[in-house]
Amino acid sequence: MTDTTPVVVTVTGAAGSIGYAAVFRIAAGDMLGPDRPIKLRLLELPQAVSAAHGTAMELQDGAFPLLTSVDIFDDARAAFDGTDFGLLIGAKPRSKGMERADLLSANSAIFAEQGAVINDVAADDIRVIVVGNPANTNAAVAAASAPDVPAERFTALTRLDHNRAIAQLAAHTGAPVRDISRVSIWGNHSATQYPDIFHARIGDRSGADVAADTDWLVGDFIPTVAARGTAIIEARGASSAASAANAAIDHVRDWVLGTPADDWTSAAVSSPGAYGVPEGLMCSFPVRSVDGAWQIVDGLEINEFSRARIDASVAELQSELDAVAARR
Ligand code: NAD
Ligand code: LMR
């Protein structure tokens, strides 16, 4: 039977670029399906509350049938009270010339505080996606600040990288996006991430066959996907927004409603020690959603080429977490 109980969705940084792009699609039912009424909570910094009010007025003007209420907060404890889904977007974005790691100290404090609040007041079965960068480490920080919430309820966004990899594969091979499956993003949402196509299916070709063109793989595909965020900042003068919102919605939708049969996606989840990734690192893996929970795809053969790249990104994740711990 379809569940029509309203759910509480809290979006942080709701007046920012990604938040603004996300909330209308959430209200339209793109994230939780066409039958799920939504109570939206918008959390902002005090100076952006007025802008959030403007967004709320526009949401009202959308007359979305599923949108039961929109409330605006500048207090995290009130915004997360009883929350079922937390989209943690609010943070400083990267500007030209910065690496995501440069945001570490500025942003990790936000996620420590919000994790602790979620621990105290959110619904017991809250699901959290962290978008604010550096997303993996911010999610690890939030999870560590919420000891009563199972770690698997905290995740970080690497679906944008996954979608970018599929789009690049489609452009390179001519296969339609819908005929590309089983792409994997491993590691950090950063320049060290590893988009892995060795297990992919690309139209009527195997990923290993496409990957055999190492000049293209190493000289074009991997750096294009890994540096796409930078290329967008260079071109737009601001970091990706609509594509990031779209990916966050894809992530939560698949988490709740399931991944397509015979495919998987990518998400950063707390490592249980899978594929040699140390426990507790918030690492991107190939994942399937089964009965509303992410499961890391197991048993994939990892060749030497992939192993070296996964290890490099995992080492970066470890050093980010160590840097946060050293500052405390
Ligand atoms: P933005 O500057 O347009 O908006 C950020 C908003 O967050 C602002 O309105 C700000 O007032 C608010 N904010 C800041 N601190 C807050 C707090 N403690 N509580 C509530 N709100 C707070 O930035 P944006 O373009 O929307 O990007 C948001 C974040 O997402 C950045 O860190 C960016 O780097 C990151 N990002 C991640 C991905 C990904 O794939 N993981 C992709 C794109 C951008
Ligand atoms: C992206 O991948 O587009 C974002 O993470 C923005 C950034 O900082 O690169």
TrEMBL record:
It is an enzyme of class 1 (oxidoreductase). GO terms for molecular function: L-malate dehydrogenase (NAD+) activity. Residues 9-147 form the Lactate/malate dehydrogenase N-terminal domain. It catalyses: (S)-malate + NAD(+) = oxaloacetate + NADH + H(+). Keywords: NAD, Oxidoreductase, Tricarboxylic acid cycle. It comes from the Bacteria. Substrate binds at R94, R100, N133, R164. Residues 158-326 form the Lactate/malate dehydrogenase C-terminal domain. The keyword NAD applies. The active site is at H189. NAD(+) binds at G13, A14, A15, G16, S17, I18, G19, N107, Q114, V131, G132, N133. Its EC number is 1.1.1.37. Catalyzes the reversible oxidation of malate to oxaloacetate. HAMAP family: Malate_dehydrog_2. Belongs to the LDH/MDH superfamily. MDH type 2 family. This is Malate dehydrogenase. It comes from Gordonia jacobaea. The lineage of its organism: Bacteria, Bacillati, Actinomycetota, Actinomycetes, Mycobacteriales.
